[in-house]
TrEMBL record, chain A:
A single cellular component GO annotation: maltose transport complex
Keyword Membrane applies: yes
Role summary: Part of the ABC transporter complex MalEFGK involved in maltose/maltodextrin import. Probably responsible for the translocation of the substrate across the membrane.
GO biological process: maltodextrin transmembrane transport
Organism: Paramicrobacterium agarici
Protein name: Maltose/maltodextrin transport system permease protein
Automatic annotation (TrEMBL), chain B:
InterPro entries in the record: Maltose/Cyclodextrin-bd, SBP
Record-given protein name: Carbohydrate ABC transporter substrate-binding protein (CUT1 family)
GO molecular function per UniProt: carbohydrate transmembrane transporter activity; maltose binding
Family indicated by similarity: Belongs to the bacterial solute-binding protein 1 family.
Source species, domain of life: Bacteria
């Protein structure tokens, strides 16, 4: 007998359904995955905790905060019921943050500094290095035998001069002769009231002892004793003096005063800089330098043009050849298609940089296979003539790149239904018209994004350029180390790492320019691709 | 149904967090290990060849001094750059192995500190100490000296040539593919061609009284330099210095008996010996009127400017690396002549080492001043252009000298 109203019944049904779903959910998972999940998250938490601890002890509060937020998000996402999309997206997002956003952000930061040769550290380090290297041993000064003494936590030098005089002194009191020192083999080794340090003790406090300077007399200009090894002391005189209050360096020989003028190095009034300097924020200087300085702007422009030409030609030639071969090998009348296809894919199985290296050997003017065998010993400068080198680059890239295009075109062609071709043929279309009006547009819909990514890849195809020509041939007259086949990325590499002076700031600025260019090209092209899709 | 994928996802997240954790650790994490009391640890960067020898040295040093030595293997070609980058962050080593011509860069970047060799300085060959000095300060403890000389295949050329023309004549008479070989390469190789250049009286830089290079005195464009440029063009036209012969090809052709002569360093000796070639080492014949002086390269050990274990590091370098036994051991792995005079004398029992040493004694240290960077940038390409006849040699050479001067002034 039903006394229940429809409402209560449906409420109960709802409850039952929910319970059933929960049971089903648990049953579908099982207990093991849950244990694994908890164990894995425990590992994540343990590592996070360790990272937090390490970050805390080093005062790295930004790292601390980032780790904390990430750990919290991971726990929340995986313990909270539901949030299915988040469960899938979280790892990817974290990787994106670390490997993309952070890298681009850091490159951006470097692009606004003068980080590079001579400016690779802090002002503090620069001062230390300058003072260190300005300590010159007084010419013809003798070596003193040394025993390091300790008294109530303060260290003193007990030195025996070559003439046998024994004296003692420390950081604040100059050397004074003492008598009654404990001698061993003509060397003073101890003094009443002091503890003599043995080598192990010296090592334990080597930082303090290595930093000690003991003036030889009341006049600081006479120089001071320092020890490089704890058992000998030498007389040094400094040629540079750092005035901490004024923040200036003074050359004691010439009297020149070098001050911090905001260029990241101590600079004299005549503009002479003391190296090392330190890295500072230079604002947009690297970018303006790239666009205004004649010696950089000229090469930058020609390199940019060649980069576009190279990337475009690479995509077009490989696509054309790949498509052509795909069509040929897609024809049912062709015999032995499978074998040919395998042969065609071989270059793709070769590591790209190795392929380029082998080609560099093949194209050697005097000893290369190409000239020796194919051209009967002609001395064609494949890699050393500006235009032939550009041609060779495109040629080798065609060899390296067409199998990929061949593969994707084959796949795309096979997915186009035969009925379309048949219908067109029935309507009286010629084979080329069928290809141009039906197959190609359909093909492009699926291939266009790949062409764009191939363009982006070739835009930054460092391996090929570096292994084949290293950017050469270089024009000896050009003011900058950039050759005829250098593309932007190899130019960045040369600015940053090649040659005697590295300029990481400028290289980072170039990288950002490349990033912007590639992004723009990609955005515009993808917009265009949309219009292709409308064809369908 | 939501649980199934989770372990994989969690694994991904875990890796990400681990990566973050590592970045957290690396920012300054290595500092405090060395601050712990009673356990001084010296970190030494060393390349793969030298590592086995130094392992024994380190063990002996540990026993005697109680200082731990941690050897870190590095690719020799990358040490210079990594050292400059890592020292300022506090992550660099206490000591690194290195070549003497890195020194200018190191000092400019403030990453090395002077070493006081004291009275032991006179135990080393003069050229080694000069090479390891910059601005009047000694920065490294040298262990080896290397330079190029003329390797001769005694079967094809029984006598040492007396002059450059003599060498070419002997090589032509031998009827081999090349009268003589020297590595040139597409952008030329100024290092290997330098003895020829010096024989015309055209060093790169003038020197100060103490033998160090004077960066204000660029000599490369002098009259001798122009004479050398003209000579290069002649040799290029005669096909004697093909730019297609790079280091590998030169070595391969010599080893397979395609030329009686190869101008090279000790690093190619073992390959030639293994191929069964009977070798002799001669001075490089001079085409000009002066002696053909090769560059001398010195390798040694530097102490980081940020080392917290200066005393221990100095102790290791001066009292261990600077001893005869260790220098001899290091000599055995690279065949490069030891920098310590006593060790060199003993190593000279080998006629090839002795001969290389004799040629080196006549050489000049490769400039270690940073201005050299500007020189390298233009030097090789210009030589290659001259060899390939791409213009008037004198004009090209003078233009190069002007470019170098303006690059130096601009720095």
């Amino acid at each position: 007998m039903s006394t229940q109203t429809p409402q209560t019944r449906s409420a109960r049904e709802l409850r039952q359904r929910r319970r059933a779903r929960q049971i089903a959910e648990h049953a579908s998972g099982g207990i093991l995955p849950i244990i694994i999940k908890i164990a894995l998250i425990a590992v994540v938490d343990a590592i996070s905790l360790f990272a937090l601890f390490v970050a805390m002890t080093h005062g790295q509060w930004i790292v601390f905060a980032v780790v904390l937020v990430i750990a919290a998000v991971v726990n929340l996402v995986y313990f909270k019921r539901g949030w299915l999309p988040a469960k899938y997206l979280t790892p990817g997002l974290i990787f994106l943050l670390i490997f993309q956003v952070f890298v681009i952000g850091y490159t951006g930061y470097i692009a606004f500094t003068n980080y590079g040769t001579g400016h690779n550290s802090t002002k503090e380090d620069a001062v230390m290095a300058l003072v260190q290297s300005a300590q010159e041993r007084v010419p013809d000064s003798p070596a003193y035998d040394l025993t390091v003494l300790e008294q109530l936590g303060n260290y003193s030098f007990l030195v025996t001069a070559p003439d046998g005089t024994v004296s003692v002194g420390d950081d604040s009191t100059p050397l004074s002769t003492v008598s009654g020192a404990e001698m061993s083999g003509g060397v003073a080794v101890g003094l009443t009231g002091y503890t003599s340090l043995d080598f192990a003790d010296v090592l334990e406090h080597q930082k303090e002892i290595a930093a000690m300077t003991v003036q030889i007399s009341d006049d600081p200009n006479d120089g001071a004793l320092r020890t490089p090894d704890g058992s000998k002391a030498y007389l040094y005189i400094s040629t540079l003096e750092y005035d901490e209050a004024a923040g200036t360096m003074t050359d004691t020989k010439t009297g020149t005063v070098y001050s911090d003028t905001g260029v990241g190095a101590f600079t004299s009034e005549s503009g002479e800089q003391l190296m090392p300097g330190w890295s500072i924020n230079v604002g947009l200087e690297n970018f303006t330098k790239a666009f205004t300085e004649q010696s950089i702007r000229g090469p930058l422009l020609s390199v940019t043009i060649w980069t576009f030409v190279f990337a475009l030609l690479s995509v077009l030639t490989t696509f054309a050849l790949g498509l052509f071969l795909a069509i040929v090998f897609n024809d049912m009348r062709m015999k032995g298609r499978k074998l040919y296809r395998v042969v065609m894919i071989l270059p793709y199985a070769f590591p790209g940089f190795l392929g380029a290296l082998v080609w560099a050997g093949l194209l050697n003017r005097d000893f290369g296979f190409v000239n020796d065998v194919l051209f009967g010993g002609a001395a064609i400068p494949w890699l050393t003539n500006e235009w032939l080198a550009k041609f060779s680059i495109v040629w080798v890239n065609l060899w390296l790149g067409f199998p990929y295009m061949f593969l994707v075109c084959t796949g795309a062609l096979q997915s186009i239904p035969d009925e379309l071709t048949e219908a067109a043929t029935v309507d009286g279309a010629k084979p080329f018209a069928v290809f141009r009006l039906i197959k190609l547009p359909l093909l492009l819909v699926s291939i266009a994004p790949l062409l764009i990514s191939a363009f982006a890849f070739n835009f930054n195809n460092f391996n090929l350029i570096y292994m084949l020509t290293q950017g050469g041939p270089r024009d000896a007259g050009a003011g900058i180390n950039v050759g005829a086949t250098d593309i932007l990325i190899s130019m960045v590499y040369k600015v940053a790492f090649d040659g005697a002076t590295s300029d990481y700031g400028l290289a980072s600025a170039f990288s950002l320019i490349i990033f912007v260019v590639v992004s723009l090209v990609a955005i515009i092209s993808f917009k265009q691709t949309k219009s292709l899709e409308d064809l369908n | 149904m939501t649980v199934k994928k989770n372990p994989i996802l969690a694994l991904g997240a875990m890796t990400a967090v681990a990566a973050l954790a590592l970045t957290g650790c690396s920012s300054g994490g290595s500092d405090d290990a060395s601050e712990k009391e009673g356990s001084t640890t010296l970190t030494v960067w060393v390349d793969a060849d030298r590592a086995p020898v130094l392992k024994d040295v380190a063990a002996a040093f540990e026993d005697e001094s109680g200082i731990n030595v941690k050897l870190v293997q590095k690719d020799f070609g990358k040490i210079q750059e990594q050292f400059v980058q890592q020292v300022p962050t506090g992550k660099g080593p206490d000591i690194t192995i290195g070549a003497h011509d890195w020194l200018g860069d190191f000092v400019t970047n403030g990453v090395v500190q002077p070493i006081e060799l004291g009275d032991t300085a006179s135990d080393f060959q003069d050229v080694a100490i000069t090479a390891m000095s910059y601005d009047g300060q000694t920065y490294g403890v040298p262990y080896s000296i290397e330079n190029i000389a003329l390797l001769r295949n005694t079967e094809l050329a029984p006598e040492a040539p007396t002059s450059y023309d003599d060498m070419v004549q002997m090589g032509t008479d031998a009827g081999t593919e090349f009268p003589f070989l020297v590595q040139v390469g597409e952008e030329s190789d100024p290092y290997h061609l330098y003895p020829f250049q010096t024989s015309f009286g055209a060093p790169v830089f003038g020197t100060n009284e103490d033998g160090s290079y004077n960066s204000d005195d660029l000599q490369i464009g002098n009259d001798g330099g122009i004479e050398f440029a003209n000579w290069l063009a002649e040799q290029g036209a005669a096909g004697l210095l093909p730019t297609t012969v790079d280091g590998d090809i030169a070595k391969e052709k010599f080893v397979s008996g395609d030329s009686p002569f190869l101008i090279t360093g000790p690093w190619n000796v073992s390959a030639a010996e293994e191929a069964g070639i009977d070798l002799a080492v001669d001075p490089i014949p001079a085409p000009g009127s002066e002696a053909a002086q090769p560059f001398v390269g010195v390798q040694g050990f530097y102490i980081s400017a940020k080392s917290k274990n200066v005393l221990a590091a100095t102790e290791l370098l001066t009292n261990y690396i600077g001893t005869k036994d260790v220098q001899l051991e290091l000599y055995k792995v690279g065949n490069r002549a030891p920098a310590l005079t006593a060790a060199f004398e003993e190593a000279s029992a080998d006629p090839i080492t002795a001969a290389f040493g004799e040629v080196g004694a006549n050489g000049v240290p490769m400039p270690n001043i940073p201005e050299m960077g500007a020189v390298w940038q233009y030097w090789g390409v210009t030589e290659a252009d001259i060899i390939n006849g791409k213009g008037d040699p004198a004009e090209l050479w003078t233009a190069m000298a002007d470019e170098i001067q303006s690059a130096i002034d601009g720095e």
